[in-house]
Structures are given as C-alpha cells and as structure tokens.
Amino acid sequence: MFKDIKEVEWNEQFNTGVATIDTAHQRLFSIVRKMVEFSDNEKKSKWVCMEGIKFLKSYTIKHFQEEEEYLKKINYSGYTVHKRLHDVFRDKTVPALEEDLVESDYSEESMSHFLGFCLGWLTGHIMIEDRVFTGRIIKRTQGVLPENVVSALEKVLAQSIGEVFGLKVKLISEQYAGEAFANSIICRMAYRSDEGKQLFVFFVLEEKLVLRTVGQMMGVEFKRVDEVVISATKQISWMLMDRMNSCVKLMEKFKPYKEHLMTKEQLAKEFQAGRPYYSLLFNTELGYFAFCIKQQ
C-alpha cells in the first residue's frame, strides 16, 4: 500500500565518506523500509508499526549521539545548528507523527505519513546537511529560526487557518525540508523589493486538504484537482500570506508579483540549493501543509 515509498532506495550519493555514519544511515533506511514492507500485511501492520517505531526511535537517538560526538571531535563549525535539527526531529517531529498514528488507530493514511516523512527526512538531512561536514557539498543555508519566531509564526498560522476554515492546527516540524506527504499541491509565490531582491514563499498543501477547504468555501464537493481548485488554491495562499504578514511583518519591504505551481522534484531542488529560513510543517484534521520562505 506504500508503492511510492518503496521506490526510494539507498544509493551511493548518500555517502558522507565517514564509514560509521554511512553504516548507521543505511541501517536507518533499512529499518524504515522493513516497516513499509511488513505494513502491507494488514493483519500485522499495526503491531509492526508500533514495534518498528520503538526500534527506529532507539536507533535514531543512538545514531544522533554518535554523529554529534564526531562533529565535536572534528570541531565542526555548524555543530549547534546541526544538533538543533536532530533535536527537533527527535523531540518534536517524531512524537507528533506518532501521536497522529495513535489518534487514528494506525490508519493506512497516518502510517503513510509517518513512513514517508521519516524516509524523506533521512534523505533530505543526509543530502543537504550531513554531506556538508565531510566537504561533499558546499553549505548554502539561511540559518535556523529562533524559537520565539517559530512560536509567533505557529500562532499566526494556527489562528489564520482556524479563522478561515475552522480547522485545528498542530505543528509537526519547525525544520521542514521538502519531505513528501501523499499527493500535494505546491504553490510558489514570488515577492520583490524596490532594490530588486527576491523572496519566495512556498505553500505545500495536501490535496485532500485543498479539496475539502475549497469545496467548503464554494459550496461544491470536489472529487479531483481541476483548474477551479488550482485557481482557488493560489488565492487562498495569497490570502493566508497577507494575513500572516499583517501580524508578524515578515516582508515589509517586499511586494508580490507572481506565483506558479511546482512539482515535488522542483521543490526538492529548491531545498538542495539551500534550506529556507522559515520552514514549518503542520497537520490539520483534513491533511498536512507546509509553509516556507526563502530569500535570494
């Protein structure tokens, strides 16, 4: 039932050049993939997922500790930021995903979210973050948000979604890195300053969330994404951005000038070119959505 996830395989481009770290990464991939394979057996999927999560969390904690010790040993200048990424994934993201599993009684959808996100996080973290400290790629980043800014953005987004759609919003990750979650619509909104600087806002919205929310607004039951839904999604994205900007003044010097839809592959390339400064992932009763801002 997780066909798309099964297509993700370990390959040589994930190697960092540090044998112990590469072995641990391969082990993490193996754990997630075994959970995917065993989850195809509906009679065993819940038990396998529960046991698999326990083992995954235990091994992840062990690996993070070992990797952080290595970074301290080589006096890696990005240690503090890298450790923060580990901490957020371990202490906030995985527990939030696990909570969703329990609340849904380990539904197929919640397991797909959990396994797909974990595999996506591992891939993105290795490709974008871990290969930096061995010099495999050059670091291109805009930093990590202070916790008070994350809290402010989380509050404004939760209020905005609640006011517009009447949905409860829960933060899943404050370091979203383009991980795929089911079928999604990705809208990139471009802003420009008088000096010619560009800023891009990304809304990544799960299709079922879009279909339900747009349908509620228009009084129509949409079965698939069409031109009407896409047009409405773009307008909703601008509306939410205006609402947030009026509350936290994210882009006072920038003016909107265009938007377009992106593919998952295009989004992945954006993240590989440099992690956005603002990058949050949320869950609602109807589906997931991510909010990111990146400046060039």
Helix content: 55-70%
Query: How does the helix and strand content classify structurally?
Result: alpha+beta
Beta-strand content bin: 15-25%
Strand order of the largest sheet: 1-5-6-3-2-4
Question: In words, what does this structure look like?
Answer:
The chain is α+β, with helices and mostly antiparallel strands and 296 residues long. The protein is built from nine helices and six strands; from the N terminus they run H-H-H-H-H-H-E-E-E-H-H-E-H-E-E. The chain has helices at residues 3-6, 19-38, 45-73, 79-103, 108-130, 147-165, 207-218, 227-248, 264-272, and strands at 170-173, 184-193, 198-206, 254-262, 278-283, 288-295. It has a six-stranded antiparallel sheet with strand order 1-5-6-3-2-4. It is globular, with a radius of gyration of 19 Å.
Brief descriptors of the model:
six-stranded antiparallel β-sheet; alpha+beta; 55% helix; 6 strands; 296 residues
Describe the secondary-structure layout.
Elements: H1 3-6, H2 19-38, H3 45-73, H4 79-103, H5 108-130, H6 147-165, E1 170-173, E2 184-193, E3 198-206, H7 207-218, H8 227-248, E4 254-262, H9 264-272, E5 278-283, E6 288-295
